[in-house]
Structure formats: structure tokens, C-alpha cells
């Protein structure tokens, strides 16, 4: 059940009370539908934090969801982030305008509490934890040299911008551990293989809804 | 026997409910989200050769529905059969393979291949948009063989006077597929198929108009509740196909 809606500059976030089995790792998603609303397609939800039986959902959630709404959830779905165990310097970079909110669970999931984290984005969430340093996207290249792990969220159309910001020539030049959450419609949860979320990976077509939405950055093809 | 009973009997369908092509992949999931049991499984579109997704793939949501543009990617019939032919033989309902072709000349090879696949009882023939009746009939003739042919034409393109010719050409039924439309997204006009409950009145009107002929009509869109599907059946549809409603409310 949806227990709380909170407003942010990029849309409404939500708090859901749900079964403990539904605990996606960072980058995985839940497919959600509220009966009795005008929602036609299920919505892909990314968890920002888990708090007891509650899941804090990163914005945006559908506009007509209200506290008390019963939500059908399916998941966790897809492939999430898999950072190396011994990350000391983590960089989260959001090129998709979500303030990095879909990436923040990487910080709470990390085993090493001494890990240092930088968030690169156009703007920061108002409640960004103090232990995460916020920097604008123009600092990308400088911070990349410091990072031993990078998690990016972006649409495929932002690939050129990412290479420009990071100063690399090709995707193969990214460190093999760096990962990207591809911002694309996730509507069927892998049931249909409809192809709307197709991503070219290692010169083969894959589907973000089941093979992603997280991929190795160096594996994304540039010849789509 | 009513027309629907004859149709269900001929195609060995236990119920008049089934999925629309493109909404459950190439193999049915084990869990289900729809109350009524399915009478058939309809595959994603299958092309002769591998087919890439569209360069600009999009979903545009609007009140009452959504526009979907994917380019209908397909790994090609050889790859689809390699992965699924043996599995199709083991599922409890008949399989309808949706064929996606640009010309009738591609069909005989595909039909001959499918005739050797167990449990494939029908091919659903996706007719390209904007083609005249003469070409539609050429597609149907090219698909004739041991497997039943179901023509699949966009509901906004089908004309009353075509129905008897389609039946005479050998089609066992006609799917009224989701209509095409356009929408604006990120300052770009996008073409695609329209889905959602908003097209239900359009589909119901088409079923009422076309069900007066002898050719069994399958309503291929706009159904987002059991009541809407039953209304289409009462209006004369021989069967009903479900689309994105199958992506919601899954038992987990």
C-alpha cells in the first residue's frame, strides 16, 4: 500500500509498505499498477532506500496515485548495479534529470561505511545525505580520475555527452567496472520482448527490461 | 452451432480469450494476470530474416492509452524456431505464429517451415499498412497451406466490402488489430500503434459492423476489463485478444 507521497522538483516520490520479499538492489526495478486509477501502463519504480517494511520510491511516480492506494507490484526485475566489493571512491552521475535519486541506493547498499561518494548532477535532492558530496556535471572529468567505481544514469541519446564530459574517445575506454542505468521505457517487465527498450550491447541487441536496465558502460555499442 | 462455436472448434480453442501478438513474447509466461484461461497463445511478430528495432523507439502515454513505436524487431524465423519450436509442442493451448512480411513472396518458405512444427495451428498474417485489397488477397493466397490463416489488419483500414473477398481467399478469420496514429513527443511527431481502453468504443463499433458477415472476427485491442471483452463477444466477435492489460496486476 502507498503510505506517503512527497513532492520534489522532479515529480512526486512515494513511500510504499510492502512484503519483505520485494527488495530490489540498486538499479533493479518494480513494475507497479494501481487498480482504479487512470493508469494504462504499469510504472517502473526504482527504490531510493529501504526502511523496515517500507520502500522509498524515487520520483517520479504516477500523478494520480494517492496515499492509501493499493499498488500491485511485480519484481524485483532486471539486472541491477554490481559494484566491486572494495570500492573506496564511488561516483554517481545523473545525466537524465533525476537528481541521481535512482542511484542513491548504491550508497546505503555499500558494505564499506568509510566509502566516499560524489554525486554529479544538474541539481541535488533537498535531502541528500551529508556524507555524499554534490558537484555539478562539469566536474565530471576531474572526479573520474579519483573514482574507482562509476554509476551513471542516462538515456542512450546522451552517450555523446557522457563521452564529452568524461574525456574518453570510445565506450571501450571506460573502466570495465563502470556501469550505466539506461533511462528508457520499461513497460512489460520482460514479458513481451516488445523491443521498445532495445539497447545495443557488444554489437548485439539486448532488452533493458530484462537484460538491463544496468549494463557495463564499456559494453554499450556506439553504432546503433 | 453458432459461428463462434464453429470457429473455436475448427481452431481447437477452449476459450475465446487470447493475447495479441507482441504482448507475451515468443513463449507464454507460467504466471498469469488475466482471470479467464487463454484459448491460444499468439507469438510476437516473426519475420523471415532478423529485423532491427526502430532507430527512435518510443512510448507516448496519453489519457486513455498509449502509442507504441518499436519497429517490430524480430530475430528471424530460424532463430525463433530454434529457441521455441520444441517448447511450443508442450504447451496446453494451440500456438498461432504471427508472421511479419513485406511481400507475399516471403510467405511460402515460412509456411512450409511452420507446417513441421508441432502445435502450431494457425498463422496470423500481419498485413502491412496501406495496401489495397488485391495485395491483401495475394498475401492470403501465398500463406495457404495446411495451417489455418488468420488475416490481421488494422481496424482503421479494414473495409466492409473486403470481408467476403478475404474469406473467399481462404482466411479462417480476421483480427482487427490496433489502429495506427500519431502523437507528439519531445517536439517530434511519432507514428505507431495505439493501445488502451480509449480505443474500445472504436473496436466495438467495428465488430458490430463486420460481424454481420460470415468471416469470424477477432477483436484485437481496447480490452482492459473482462466486461469489455464480454461486450465484444456479445456484439459478435468470435474471439478477443488482450494487449497491455496483460502487463499489469501479476500474481507474485
Account of the protein in words:
The complex is a heterodimer of chains A (224) and B (252). Chain A is mainly β and 224 residues long. Chain A has two domains: 2-77; 89-219, Rossmann fold. Chain A has three helices and 15 strands. In chain A, the strands form four sheets. A six-stranded mixed β-sheet of chain A has the order 10-9-8-11-12-15. In chain A, strands 1-2-6-5 form a four-stranded antiparallel β-sheet, with no helix packed on it. A three-stranded antiparallel β-sheet of chain A has the order 4-3-7, with no helix packed on it. By secondary structure, chain B is α/β, with parallel strands linked by helices. Chain B has one domain (3-247): TIM Barrel (Alpha-Beta Barrel), CATH 3.20.20. Chain B is built from seven helices and twelve strands. Chain B has helices spanning 3-10, 77-88, 107-115, 133-142, 163-168, 200-210, 226-234; strands at residues 17-19, 41-42, 58-62, 65-69, 95-100, 120-126, 148-154, 173-177, 180-185, 188-195, 217-220, 239-242. In chain B, strands 1-12-11-8-7-6-5-2 form an eight-stranded parallel β-sheet. In chain B, strands 3-4-10-9 form a four-stranded antiparallel β-sheet, with no helix packed on it. In chain B, β9 and β10 form a beta hairpin.
